[in-house]
Amino acid sequence: MKFYFVILAMMSTNFRSQVLIKITSIPKGTPENAKIFMANSSNNWNPNDPKFELKKDSSRNYTLQITENKGTLEYKFTQGNWEIAEGDENGNKLENRKLFFSTNPQTIENQIVSWEKSAINKNTASENVKVLSENFYIPQLKTSRRIWIYLPPDYSTSNKKYPVIYMQDAQNLFNDATSFSGEWKVDETLNQLFAEGNRDAIVVGIENGGAERLNEYSPWKNEKYGGGKGDAYTEFLAKTLKSYIDKNYRTLPQAKNTALIGSSMGGLISFYAGLKYPEKFGKLGVFSPSFWYDFKDLNLFVSENSKNLTPTKFYFLSGTKESENMVSDIQKIIPILIKKGVPESNIKTKFDEDGTHSESYWSREFGAAYLWLFKK
C-alpha cells in the first residue's frame, strides 16, 4: 500500500531554500482515512498538533508548509498519538528522524516501514491516560524521558484538587503495548475504585532509561552492576517533575498527599527518595524492593538520615520466595524506621507465599496498597 506524502518547508521571510520531505510508502493495513502528523522538536513533540497535520491535495498527496529554521529539526510521524507512531522494520520503536536545514534546496525521501506493532496489537491504556511528554528533559541527568499521566475520570468536569502518585517504570503501568512482561493496570484499578466511591488520584509515570535503569535507580554503586545516579534522579523527581506537575495540574501538593510507588529497583529508589525528601513525598509503596543491591549503604543511610520521617507512611510488599533475603532485608529496615520516629501504625507489611517478582503480582496488589496509603 503506497501513497505519496509531501511536507514542504518554506522560509516565511525569503525563498533561499525549500525542504521537500517525501514519504513514499506506508505500511499495509494503515486505515484509508488515517491522519498523519509530524511530531517534532519545534512543537514540543506534540503528536497531534493541527499546525503539523498533513493535508491531502487534489492529487492525493499529503502536504504541509512550515517555516524553515536554522540547525537541525528532529521529527517522527504519528497517527495523532504516541500509541501509534512509526516503528522500525521489526515494529519496534524508531529513533527520531533528523532534518538538517540548509540554504540550498533539498529533497529528503522517507518510508514508514511499520507502525509500532505493540501499539497496534494490544493497546490497553484507558482514555484518561495520556503521554504528558515524549521527551521531558531531566536536567540533573542531561537526558530526557517519556512521561505518562493518568487523570481521574472527573478531572475535566470538576474543580477538585487531587493527591498525586509518582511511579517508576512507566512502560509497565498502563499499557500492555509498552510493557515487556504485562502491565500493572493502574488505570483500570483506579477507574474501578473511583466508580466504587473511593478517593481518586493523579498518577504520573516516569519511563525508565533502559540500559541506564540500574544506574538511575540506585544512589550507590554495586561492584557488579553499577549504579550511583540515584541522587540525581531523585532530585529530578522532587525538584523538577513535582514542581512541574503542581504548577500545571490541580494537585494537593503537600507531602501527606503525595506518594512514590515502585517495584524491584523502582522500589529501592522510591524508598530512598521518600527518605531523602520526606517534605515532598509522604507515602511510599515499596514493592519487592531490591535492597540487596547495596544493603550496607542503604542500612547506613536509613540509620543516619536525620530528617523527620514521623508522618511518612510505608507499604512494603514482597513474595516470601522471591529471593533469599528480600523479606529479611525489609524486616531489618523496619526497626530502624521505628527508631527514627515512624509510628508502627504508619508501616504496613504484606508478605505473600504466592508472590512472584512480576507485573502480574504487583498489579494484583496495587489496589490494596493504594487504599491503605490513601485511606480516608
TrEMBL record:
Upper classification of the organism: Bacteria, Pseudomonadati, Bacteroidota, Flavobacteriia, Flavobacteriales
Record has Secreted as a keyword: no
Record keyword Hydrolase present: yes
Pfam families, sorted: Esterase (PF00756)
InterPro entries: AB_hydrolase_fold, Esterase-like, Ig-like_fold, Mycobacterial_A85_antigen
Keyword set, alphabetical order: Hydrolase
Signal peptide region: none
Domain of life: Bacteria
Entry protein name: Alpha/beta hydrolase
GO MF annotations in UniProt: hydrolase activity
